[in-house]
Specification:
heterodimer, A: 382 residues, alpha+beta, Globin-like, Heat Shock Protein 90, 5-stranded mixed β-sheet, two-stranded antiparallel ribbon, B: 216 residues, alpha/beta, Rossmann fold, 2 domains, 4-stranded parallel β-sheet, 8 helices, 9 strands, binds protoporphyrin IX containing FE
Chain lengths: 382, 216
């Protein structure tokens, strides 16, 4: 159901009708002067509570701006019209909170604060024992129930969208797995034929060169198939304590780069991670290859690491142009790519590998222009 | 390595070009090779003669590789087998691992490994790998395979699989009392209780293999 459908149904259920609308409108002139104060209290409460404050700081708006937004929100609350547009605007506000990752349960407390503050002010406006006071409190209470319902509906929409994405991925996974496996048979034939031919071509350098090329290209094709299959199914892990510097060095060796791009590996000495060597190498190849490509003709890539609470945190940073806001949100989903060539599997695979290791991968915007990825892996005793 | 006369392999894959290529590669290494494109025909061959090892695909129309291996071991319990498959991660693959194989190789087939594994393959050289916590089971199995033996993995709680008497049993990652109980329950089996390093296993396995070569 869309938010308006929910609103409509609830309107009937809580009995919010034209009479309530008239009452809210009538309350507006008396309450409006207090809106800035209520808004002030609202954000003061959020700022007092560190986890909520952290969410606030994650958003892109200043608290000053948000206070104005909330005043406008209250203006709307008492003035309507409470039509489809109204619900759509409210749902948009709800989605802003979903997007910044505000946990849904904060909404109950937040709405409660608004209810308490507004209700107290209604009581100051109207004689507490009067019938007007009673119906006014009722109208306010119903409207806030509706507001909360719309807000929560946007969380639900988000869950449903996630579920749809997961299902799409599952279908995608099946198709990929079946194509990938089917490709391995012809690749297997081609490769074994090359192996047999290599023994026979003798010394003709031209023939040797071309056989070599065929073999290389088969390996490339097989590599793509392997990444795809790795992405869609769980590869068994063989975790061992590994020297990070070795894993990274071997990965960097495999990365192709332009003359003008430097890869600078720092402060890895002595760090050990618990992981599957082949899979971790793949993760670093993907991260460093992306970083190198982001640099274009010239630039540098820095790989460094440190130990944080028993985990090893490895950062891969480049001097490229950084990431687009639209890409950032979906960075680790498959088929998201910013490169002209590339299928967009690299980071998705890094994420899978990180998760299999009980680690994480994230992106932070560094103070410089480029992009920085942080991979966290379980540490191993040295 | 000891010389073991003519080596004879049976290659089974419904992909004819691949089966033929593998056969040709093996022939180049000096072996004699028969090729079959389906499991039923392969079984007839296995009943008619002894092979040094079986090389089979997993997914084939009709009988698959796992069924073929099960039937082949009925006919010839000492037969080493190596599986090649495009479907690494297949549930059936876990099944053949439990039946005991020299290797499960992906397609495209890493030819060097294929050759190396088959070259060392020893008929009837079975090693039980009895692992409690599964931590090292893969490494122990690779170790056993490197010596041309067929590892049969199971847990102390399982009944041992049918087939030839093992050269030895490796008890890995099991508590001491559990290992002792297992040893009492299987008096005829030469047992190695593996604590930390694979060193002890190497020595014992090499000694057993020497006896095995002399005896058989
Ligand atoms: C009843 C509860 C709430 C209401 C009515 C409300 C209302 C609003 C409104 C009207 C906006 C402006 C949206 C826009 O840009 O169009 C907003 C944005 C925002 N709200 Fe709330 N809010 C509520 C709860 C919270 C809570 C509990 C937090 C906790 C930290 C929070 C954090 C934010 C942040 C960070 C933004 C800015 C997001 C961005 O633009 O990046 N809100 N809110």
């Amino acid at each position: 159901m869309n938010p308006f459908g929910v609103f409509h149904e609830l309107q009937d259920y809580v009995g919010f009708g034209p009479a309530d609308q008239a009452i809210l409108r009538a309350l507006h002139p008396g309450l409006a002067p207090d809106f800035p104060e209520v808004s002030e209290l609202f954000y003061a409460r959020i700022l007092e509570y560190p986890p909520a404050r952290a969410v606030l700081e994650r958003g892109e708006s200043s608290v000053g701006h948000l206070r104005h937004s909330l005043v406008a929100w209250m203006e709307g609350l008492f003035q309507g019209p409470w039509d489809e547009n109204y619900v759509e605007r409210r749902a948009r506000i709800g989605r802003v909170h979903v997007r910044i990752g505000l946990p849904q349960h904060y909404m109950f407390g937040a709405m409660n604060l608004l209810r308490r503050e507004l209700s107290a002010r209604v009581s100051r406006l109207l004689a507490p024992e009067s019938p007007e006071h009673f119906v006014a409190q009722n109208a306010l209470s119903r409207m806030l129930d509706l507001e909360l319902a719309i807000m929560l509906q946007t969380y639900r929409e988000d869950l449903e969208a996630q579920k749809a994405r997961t299902e799409r991925m599952a279908t995608f996974g099946q198709v990929v797995a079946s194509i990938g496996h089917d490709l391995r048979n012809p690749l297997g034939v081609a490769e074994s034929s090359v192996f047999l031919l290599e023994k026979r071509v003798g010394t003709d350098p031209g023939a040797k060169k071309h056989l070599q090329r065929i073999a290389e290209q088969i390996a490339v094709a097989n590599g793509i198939v392997t990444s795809l299959l790795d992405l869609v199914r769980d590869r068994p892990m063989d975790p061992l304590p590994l020297a990070l510097s070795e894993v990274v060095a071997r990965a960097v060796d495999l990365v192709q780069r332009r003359e003008g791009v430097k890869v600078d590996v720092r402060s890895l000495a002595g760090l050990r991670v618990l992981g599957d060597a082949a899979q971790l190498r793949q993760a670093f190849v993907n991260l460093v290859q992306n970083a190198v490509e982001a640099c274009g003709e010239t630039g540098s890539v820095t790989v460094e690491a440190r130990m944080v609470d028993g985990k090893v945190e490895i950062s891969v940073e480049d001097t490229g142009h950084g990431l687009d806001a639209s890409v950032k949100a979906r960075l680790f989903e498959p088929l998201i790519t910013t490169k002209s060539k590339g299928v967009g599997l690299g980071l998705a695979l890094v994420k899978r590998i990180a998760e299999r290791h009980g680690g994480t991968i994230g992106h932070v915007t560094p103070p410089t222009q480029g992009a920085r990825f942080i991979l966290t892996l379980p540490g191993a005793p040295s | 390595m000891t010389s073991r006369g003519l080596r004879r392999y049976l290659v089974v894959d419904d992909n004819q070009p691949l089966a033929e290529n593998l056969a040709e590669i093996l022939e180049t290494s000096g072996a004699e090779v028969d090729v079959e494109l389906d499991a039923v025909a392969a079984l007839r061959r296995l009943q008619a003669r002894r092979y040094t090892a079986l090389v089979t695909d997993m997914r084939m129309p009709g009988l698959g590789g796992a069924e073929l291996l099960a039937a082949a071991r009925q006919a010839d319990p000492a037969l080493p087998a190596l599986v090649v498959t495009a479907f690494i991660g297949d549930a059936d693959l876990a099944r053949v691992e439990r039946m005991g194989v020299l290797a499960t190789l992906p397609k495209p087939v890493p030819v060097e490994i294929l050759l190396q594994r088959l070259e060392h393959a020893r008929r009837g050289a079975v090693v039980w790998v009895v692992c409690g916590a599964s931590g090292r089971v893969n490494r122990v199995m690779e170790f056993v395979r490197d010596r041309g033996c067929t590892p049969l993995p199971f847990t102390p709680a399982d009944a041992p699989p049918p087939g030839p008497t093992p050269l030895l049993a490796v008890l890995a990652d099991t508590a001491e009392d559990e290992a002792a109980a297992w040893a009492r329950a299987h008096p005829g089996v030469h047992l190695i209780w593996l604590l930390a390093s694979l060193e002890a296993l190497a020595t014992a396995l090499d000694a057993e293999l020497e006896k095995f070569e002399e005896g058989g």
